[in-house]
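Lecture 7, part 2: worked example. A protein chain together with fe (ii) ion.
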Amino acid sequence: MTVIEWNDSFSVNVAEFDMQHKKLVEILNELGDAMKHGKGIDELGRIMNNLALYAAKHFETEEMYFNRFKYPEAVNHRKEHATFLTKAAEFQYGLNNSVTLNAMHFLKHWLITHIQETDRKYSSFFNENGLS
Ligand SMILES: [Fe+2]
Ligand SMILES: [Fe+2]
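Predicted complex, written out as structure tokens:
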């Protein structure tokens, strides 16, 4: 099940971040597939764990550049990242089918709005600092 289909509206004009965002979308789609095929808690948990680990790695990359270039919107942006990681951990510990549907809804909505709105805000800032 394709939960999110990648298109140019997700591009933030920084190749490294686009690549990481694509990977996040890919893992979310893998979770959607596993749910559709009625996979068990173990498999759902494994994918959810991958998503949380990869998201943490991606956030570290963005935040490293926020520090390097002194991105003025870093504080609020970091808060959104922290919210995602807290929620992802909650979903992992409370895993059952109803939680998984709620989790999927949250993860999908968060990824779309965070990439298309919050992340895209930094595009011109990073481009001006030589990152593209
Ligand atoms: Fe991002
Ligand atoms: Fe971000």
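The chain has one domain: 14-128. The longest helix spans residues 41-69. Keep this in mind for problem set question 3.
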